Amino acid sequence: MQLLAIIRKELLLLCRDLHGLLLLFVMPVVFILIMSLAMKDDFDRRSGVQLDVLVLDNEDSVISRKMLDKVAQNEQFNLLNLSDLELGESAELAIKADRYSFLLTVPKQAFADDTVVAVADVLVAPATSPAVTQLFTATLMHAAAEQKMRLMLEELQDYSPELEGFSLMPEDGEDKKLVSVHYAFNSDELAEAPTSVQQNVPAWLVFSMFFVVIPLANTLINERQLGTLRRIQTLPVASWKLIAGKIIPYFFINQIQVLLMLLVGVTLVPMLGGDRLTLGNSIAGLILMSTALSVAALGYAMIIAVVSRTTEQATTLGGAGNIILAAIGGIMVPAFVMPEFMQTFTMVSPMSWGLQGFLDIFLRGGGLAEVWPEAASLYLLGVITLALALLLLHRHDES
Amino acid sequence: MKLEGSSAPIVTVTALNHHYASATAAALNNINLQIPAGSCFGLLGPNGAGKTTLISLLTGILSPQKNDQLLSASIQVAGFSFPNDAAKIKKISGLVPQDYAFYPALTGRENLTFFAGLYQIAAANLAARMDYCVRVCGLEKVLDKPAATYSGGIKRRLNIALGLLHDPKILYLDEPTVGIDAQSRHFILQAIEQLKASGMTIVYTSHYMEEVEQICDQLAIIDHGEVLLQASMASLLQDVSNVVITPAVALAADTLASLRQSFAIDWDGKNLTMQLVAGQSLSMLIAAVEQLGISVSQLHYGSNSLEQIYLRATHRELRQ
Questions:
Q1: Which chain B residue has its CA at the smallest distance from A8's CA?
Q2: Which helix (H) or strand (E) holds A80?
Q3: Long-range CB pairs of A266-273, under 8 A, 24+ apart, other chains included
Q4: Per the omega criterion (within 30 degrees of 0), is the bond before B146 cis?
Q5: Helix ranges (DSSP H) in chain A
Q6: Distance (Å) from the C-alpha of residue B132 to the closest C-alpha of chain A?
Q7: Structural domain that includes position A386
Q8: Interchain CB distance below 8 Å, B99 and A235
Q9: Average of pLDDT values for A279-308?
Q10: Which residue of A has its CA nearest to B22?
Q11: A369 to chain B, closest Cα gap in Å
Q12: Nearest-Cα residue of chain B relative to residue A7
């Protein structure tokens, strides 16, 4: 009954604290939406998502189609036939507006007429990077040259029947054997670069979970300053109930944050044009990570609440501490774009442990077996910081 | 020791000491005190005298310190003693701190409900207890408004109501009327009189002497962590040995020297306190005053003012 009264009071106080609610629920949603959408293109390039190429095949011959098929074999490029689309504007305008990366035009009689030199014309969109342009033109040149050589061989075969069946080009698949590729790092990691939404949802979720520090610390400090804590100390209430009564509601607030942010990633971000968040397939792993993160965040919050004398101190210490932990932990700047030594340094921040745990589940199909080291670290940190906070609180009361 | 003219003590403090780790001097030094059951006990002392520490120990906010030299120290409340019976003592004690010890963001009703939950008041009694507290403290019209919107006087009344919820046997009121207007003060003093009439023991600290004089029937003055004086209010105020004269003009040094030859006197620059000893009478004293040509503006005999008692006991030192 006492515990319920304390939990009810904490929830009522939080419901009346508009700034606290904005901080815990609205801020992360805004961050997720802005960052997921703003960084979409950059993440798409890093994670190997296809670039859209508009194709206008004016020749429309077997040879031109073979050339285009060859280009399409490069998974970086998604060829879209202009005649299949209803653009509603000219192809040139669509390219100028950066809706597509390239416009590839095959002129009439490109291969049929020997006098036509350029068998393909490429219009590059403004935002398409030079490196990608070079890659695309090299792929296209390779495909065009192959078809040209095929034509030349066919002409030679007309004069020299003994060349029948002879090919200048390697068989399909044989060309891949011509070059052997080795990685100086684990090639699996290539597939681990998250999409914008995969990075931003867990990142800002972790960030917002640690922000329970501000409302939690403020209520404790207000209780100390107003004398409410002094009154409560005259009541027959066990001190564990006072602490549990504060921690339990914020633990559930953290879990609501997790549900809300995942919902935003799954529904709202795709509605606004971003990618849909993939949740992996381990509910148990997700629960383990979200509870572990909450315990760590609550331990951190209690430490800040106990060492701060005023609400201003708690807001500054808690807020600035969170921002530093987020900057170090790969929340604000994704770890995979950092230099290697900084990537190692991210492990200093518990936010990084939480983020990696979530990425293990969302991105790498991980479950309990994969996330337990991160979860255990967070639980351990939470238990240590909570114990330390209780010790400091006890000492504070004694003095 | 049972105080003359009083009932059995509900609180007995014996040889109590307390020393804060961060302080050089002891906050409480060998405190011996008895609070009669059903009394209104005034606890007076300058700021920093040790009143808050004493109330903190009596209400269980602070734990009595363990020390080999303090084995005889004890706090007994209604037959229970700290620290073993702390929970039982807390159940029968109520504290109304000087601060507004409630949640401004919650309404009066939500504050009362929260503290009722902490006191574990049975559901069957809850409505009746809340009604009683609301009625005694006159909170009916503001109960569902956020406490932050209350005036200073209503905040004080809510502060008191929260201390009454569990029907305590002993209520500690720490300066309950500080910083409020005359009407609110009058209302609160009436409410305290009502509680006193119901048999509740009240421990009252205040810097308003006239309030203490009005409602308290027992008094202790505490300073530098020591009890300087403890007596019933009636015995303190009744005084046939002292005559307090307020002269029309300040007395000259030679006039005071002449008086000192015959009487034990104390001159504070405004009032002249003359102590009558055996063989001296009021008429002798008045004759001496007239002989010295002192023009008397006021003369008090037979009763002390609490303020004078307080200032004499604490040596009128100005505290920082």
A1: B114
A2: strand A77-81
A3: A268/A29, A268/A33, A269/A32, A269/A33, A269/A36, A269/A37, A269/A197, A269/A201, A272/A33, A272/A37, A273/A37, A273/A40
A4: no
A5: 2-15, 18-21, 27-38, 40-46, 62-72, 91-96, 130-159, 196-210, 213-226, 228-233, 239-263, 269-271, 283-307, 311-328, 340-345, 350-362, 368-398
A6: 20
A7: 2-39+196-398
A8: no
A9: 93
A10: A399
A11: 43
A12: B114
Q: How far apart are CA B161 and CA B182, in angstroms?
A: 19
Separation in Å, CA A135 to CA A107, A108, A131:
22, 25, 6
Global pTM value: 0.72
Whether the CB of A236 is below 8 Å from some CB of chain B: the reply is yes
Is A238 an interface residue toward B (CB < 8 Å)? no
> Is the ipTM above a cut-off of 0.85?
no
pLDDT computed for residue A274 by the predictor: 80
Of A4, A227, A237, the CB nearest to B97: A227
Q: Do B114 and A9 touch (CB under 8 A)?
A: yes
Tally of domains in chain A: 2
pLDDT of A186 reads 43
Instruction: Please answer yes or no on whether A2 and B98 come within 8 Å at the CB atom.
Output: no
Query: What tens digit of pLDDT does each residue of A28-84 get?
Result: 899 888 888 887 766 666 655 678 899 998 888 888 888 888 888 887 888 888 888
Say which DSSP state A56 is in: E
Q: Is A51 helix (H, G, I), strand (E, B) or coil?
A: strand
A209 and A313 together in one domain: yes
Residues A210 and A342 in one domain: yes
Last residue of a domain, one of A161, A186, A211: A186
Q: Does domain B9-224 have CATH number 3.60.40.10?
A: no
Contact A9 B105 (CB under 8 A): no
Say whether residue A18 is in contact with chain B using an 8 A CB cutoff. Answer: no
Contact B102 A234 (CB under 8 A): no
Q: Which residues of B touch A (CB under 8 A)?
A: 20-22, 59-61, 86-87, 90-91, 93-95, 97-106, 110, 113-120, 146, 162-163
Nearest to A399 among B21, B101, B116 (CB): B21
Q: How does pLDDT run across B206-225, given as a tens digit for each residue?
A: 888 888 888 999 999 998 88
Shortest CA gap A379–chain B (Å): 30
The DSSP bridge pattern shows strands B28-36 and B80-81 to be: unpaired
| Cross-chain CB nearest to A230 (options B94, B97, B104) | B97
Specify the CATH architecture of the domain B236-313: 2-Layer Sandwich (3.30)
